[in-house]
Amino acid sequence: MRVFTSPQEYIQGPNAFQSELFRLNRLGNHVLIVTDSFVMKMLGNKIVHNLTVAKIKSEAILVDENNPPELLVNAQESVKKFGCQFIIALGGGKAMDLGKMIANACELPIAILPTSAATDAATSRISVRYDEMGNFVRYDFYAQNPEIILVDTTVILNAPAEMLLAGFADGIATYIEARSIWQENGRNTMGASPTIAALSLAKSCHEVLIRDIKNAQKAQAVGVINEAFENVVEANILLSGLGFENGGLSLAHGFHNVVMGEKAMNVTGSHGQIVAVGVLLQLLAEERQSEYETHQKLFCHLALPTTLHELNLNLSEEMHQYLAKRILLTRNAGNYISRQVNVEKIMAALIKLH
């Protein structure tokens, strides 16, 4: 069975947090904002003011002042006390992950307001669960996607440049992974067959990013929003988000999840940086040498990591074999890996990337 899922509405543009918050009215007139103290200090007063103008009352809970169990209890108490009718997740990956968790537990709709384009998590009905040390634990899957995604490209423009680049790497992985799944009639994150739409979105994401990333970086460096910048933001958040959820995850993210789940490996780097190396690993393991060379040169030019050493992964031969076996086992955790890939091919790829 082919299955496709998505948010109900996506809005993107300059100053969207000022001009477009009225669109949230259909979700209710009282909201619980899930964010962190840094974002609250940077944007909180403006968001609260603009929500008030849109006739929406608001409360806030900070994810960095509560661990997840306490956060959920406190959020549920706030929802009950104030009669909140929906959730806003304002910030980066942690706010989005925990905001979705709270919305699911409270059975409320959620709007996602990302403050960077470093991740494609905004559109999905998936949260990533990490332990208290930041190690990957598992994916949590919810019944439905966020209702509204609201992206303010003025806010994204002022985020650190490396965040746009991290989202670029994650977006590049979307097509590399979705293509392998499509070619072998694999399964997406819902355990279903991907649609033509999913593969098309993933491919468009890849094409836009390859074409526009350099001009988008130049625009951000001088503080200007141009078409290339808008395109890359949309690709990082919308095209990649729909592409990965509906097209599926594969070896590149399997690599990320294993090295982030192994405390002893002491991996360094953002999600996007780790996935960048995962992309090269997947291309080598699938014996796509020409594509590996093309992407490796591009990543080097953009100052993305291209080796295990750059992620602080200095592995012995035994660890190469252990890591290869663990990556293959992510097949059992929602990552579809080509049937042509085995431990030996992953080991050879790891050695080349060392």
UniProtKB/TrEMBL annotation:
Pathway: Polyol metabolism; glycerol fermentation; glycerone phosphate from glycerol (oxidative route): step 1/2
Protein name stated in the entry: Glycerol dehydrogenase
EC number annotated for this UniProt entry: 1.1.1.6
Pfam assignment, any one: Fe-ADH
Binding note for cofactor: Binds 1 zinc ion per subunit.
Coiled-coil region list: none
Record bears the keyword Oxidoreductase: yes
